[in-house]
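Lecture notes, unit on protein representations.

Consider one protein chain, 464 amino acids long.
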Amino acid sequence: MFRRKSIITILAASMVLSGGAVYAQTNGAPNGQSATAFDNKIIKKISADNMYNNIALLSEQPREAGTEGEVRAVKYIEGQFKSLGFETKVLPFPIYDYRTNHVWVKIGGADITGTAPRAFSGSVSGKVTKQLVNVGKAKPEEIGDEVKGKIALVERGDITFIEKVQNVLNRGAVGVLMYNNSSNGNAFGQAQEGQNIPAVAITQTQGLELVGKLKSGPVEVTLDVDIEKIEKTSYVVEAKLKPNKNKDTGQIVTVGAHHDSVRGGPGANDDASGVSAVLELARIFAKAPIDTEVRFLTFGSEERGLVGSSFYASQLPKSDVNRMVAHFQMDMIGGRDAGADNPAGGLIMYTIDGKKNLVTDLGAAAGLRTMDVAIPYGQLGRSDHQPFHELGIPSALFIHSPVEPWYHQPTDTLDKISKEKLQQAAEIVGSSVYQIARPDTPALENARVAPGTVDYDFEDRPVD
């Protein structure tokens, strides 16, 4: 693991510029090193029992996108927001299931050996026979012009499936053959509407065999995919908490989690835990004085490739985007067995570009105040902070990493949830959001009592 070391310091200047935002010395707490009275307006009211009870209800059945399980969760979440008096909206969007009639992969005219190949969710039907080109993990810098008119051999990992398909499509590829980056079979892959090339998943062993063959010369591959497309509906739940018009700074801060689970999985930690914290913070902020609009969001179809959050971001008016100053995403924040032996139970803040921003600045400072640990940051996509980052909004994912062995399994159940970790993450996110939304920090740059910034580490920590 690579780690840039730094010494935790509280900047004692009366006004400090960091991550594009200005903070001031804490009023009433020496050097800002302990939870302030302002923090306590939020964190003392957070109930891990409430969160645990919400996880229990949400994880009674799987919540796969487009199923009755998701609809049940959406109705419950919306009902909770409505009971708090929020301006609430459920936003439907289309998703697609696919019935596969056949998926054939031939190497030099012979069927691929071993595990039967699988089509990506969202792959189109089609048959192509072309030379294979190895493009690594299909990051833009790895893809040359030689992939034009060819089939791209891609390794899973680092960026989303949809990005990989789009990157090779942009360079003129006519098919995608992706192999796993672990020994966990080939049940993976997502393409999106408009990515009109066949995309097929194979095992790590099969992929590495092809990598070896390509070193010896050209390899001709046939992809033959026959799929029927079935439209379903998934949802985003949005709840707006608006400040008094006389105090409104015009800014918006968003707090999100995804409410869907994988097929057959109860998803207690992934991500009923994040949803439970969104609901709990909504309950507390409903009675807190604020000068900033706070939006509480839960997204469907995260497990299909961030489809719900991407949809939400795409339909936002430009005027809203221009007012959004931060997005806090919570995903898998209650895993008893997550985090390994890392400090703070393994809690880390991931950004898309691996750079600090307003969200990580606030999160690190809140961690130091609430639990004497400046939470580290790292670089990772794979969750719903990504579409907000792409809109230019400072964003970060809060998660305990590395994830637990029950990740994406039917054993991701309530008994694996830690109330202590739920409390920890909710306190840090709640305190951070309140630094923006509380009335004595108007528009942040005019803040007089916000805690000082802290130095905090970058960690190159894999999530799984």
